[in-house]
Design goal:
Number of helices: 15
Largest sheet: 4 strands, mixed
Distance between the termini: 74 Å
Radius of gyration: 21 Å
Helix content: 40-55%
Oligomer: single chain
Bound molecules: iron/sulfur cluster
Strand order of the largest sheet: 9-1-10-11
Order of helices and strands: HHHEEHEHEHHEHHEHEHEHEHHEEH
């Protein structure tokens, strides 16, 4: 088929196959890709509304045994820069989030061998006791797999236990590219194969949880592998959407190479916009696509709204992962709303289910401005949370630290 035939197929509501998607991604002019994605977005979201959420991205630990070579955030077990947040610190972050009008934590972290399943259960339970309506969007599929291996329990069992303690939904981190050749090259095959990542989401959907899906592109993958990633997500969504569950949204961002073992160069803004538009065309069973302004900046984030995105993601209060790799864009609610409205859309607050919660909160009451992003820990803070002693140490480094503490 020619590019014009493929454009006509998209406009008629037809479903692209892998070869057709690849042809469009490789050869369609960028303005045409954008126009097609925008038309599909407008069909799905006719009211011209662009949403965003006020939540806080909390990375509870940076200690990780997975050692993905594209990651600048993790520290190995025993590193003096490794941290685990205390429960009190997490409550303080929740208090600050609530003060800004937020109602959810996006809670993700490294695969820390000294944090057993019971640590997560105690944390979730205590958060729900203190803040009964506060939502926990927590633990990406590789973290769930890590907990399943650590506790020697099957994944569905781990999910059930976490849900019993207050888990509300699962974020789609750790997907990178869902092709095992790529995962082996990125040293993330052992944390989760493509099938294992998809399986966690399948189990989560069966347990009634909503989840999100992501794609990190721009490392070692081919364009065919990016398209394959999108199709694997579309196929799972086909399976689970009919059961009333499934992914609420898709988010793509480019690999951030600074301070990583893998190194290399970051993809350009045009490549981001083409990839986002392609995702809108392939993922015809996803309602929502987020603009990744945290990696692309507010200006490309704003352009994303003309390339298929209908959501500006989160008002970022705290960010540690992409900042560790060099990106440090920051927008508070006023800035996000300014970008949405300046692009000709109506800005609305939403929750994780993409239900509209209302007008921008700063128009309802006064909220503090956030002109820079918070980080998990103030640099040089090496304090240990008191509750960590309640859980048996597994790593040699943690056992040694405990022995030294007792000897003091
Ligand atoms: S991406 Fe996640 S799992 Fe991989 S090394 Fe970084 S923190 Fe660990």
């Amino acid at each position: 088929m020619t590019i014009d035939d493929l454009a006509a197929k998209v406009r008629a509501g037809g479903r692209l196959d892998r070869a057709e998607a690849l042809e469009l991604y490789a050869r369609a002019p960028t303005p045409l890709l954008g126009r097609l994605a925008d038309e599909v977005r407008a069909r799905k979201h006719p009211g011209n509304v662009v949403t965003y959420i006020i939540d806080r991205n909390v990375n509870y630990t940076n200690v990780c045994i997975a050692r993905c070579n594209f990651c600048a955030f993790y520290r190995p077990v025993g590193s003096p820069d490794g941290y685990v947040l205390g429960f009190e610190e997490i409550y303080r972050k929740i208090d600050q989030t609530i003060a800004l009008g937020g109602g959810q934590l996006l809670l993700q972290g490294g695969h820390n061998p000294d944090l057993p399943l019971a640590w997560y259960e105690d944390l979730f339970r205590s958060v729900k006791e203190r803040y009964p309506t506060f939502r926990l969007h927590a633990l990406s599929p590789p973290e769930v797999i890590h907990l399943s291996r650590l506790s020697r329990l099957p994944v569905p069992h781990v999910i059930d236990r976490l849900v019993d303690c207050g888990l509300d939904s699962i974020p789609g981190g750790g997907a990178e590219i869902l092709v095992d050749r790529v995962r082996k090259l990125l040293n993330c095959y052992s944390k989760a194969t493509a099938d294992e990542w998809l399986d966690v989401m399948r189990h989560a959907h069966r347990a009634g949880l909503r989840t999100t899906a992501t794609m990190m592109y721009g490392t070692v993958e081919t364009v065919e592998e990016r398209i394959e990633h999108l199709f694997r997500l579309r196929e799972l969504q086909d399976e689970d959407e009919s059961a009333g569950a499934g992914f609420t949204a898709f988010i793509t961002w480019s690999y951030q190479p600074e301070h990583t073992e893998l190194g290399g160069a970051e993809a350009t803004g045009v490549e981001y916009l083409r990839t986002l538009a392609m995702a809108r065309l392939v993922l015809d069973n996803f309602d929502n696509l987020q603009a990744s302004w945290v990696t692309q900046g507010g200006k490309v984030g704003q352009l994303s709204l003309a390339f298929g995105a209908n959501d500006m993601g989160s008002v970022m209060i705290e960010e540690n992962v992409v900042r560790a790799a060099g990106a440090s864009y920051c927008m508070d609610e006023i800035e996000i709303v300014r970008n949405i409205e300046n692009a000709g859309f109506v800005a609305r607050r939403r929750n994780m289910q993409y239900e509209v919660q209302g007008e921008p909160i700063f128009r309802e009451r006064s909220v503090p401005r956030m002109l820079e992003l918070a980080v998990a820990r103030i640099e040089g803070d090496s304090s240990r949370p008191p509750e960590i002693a309640r859980y048996a140490a597994r790593s040699a480094a943690e056992k040694k630290a405990r022995r030294e503490q007792t000897a003091e």
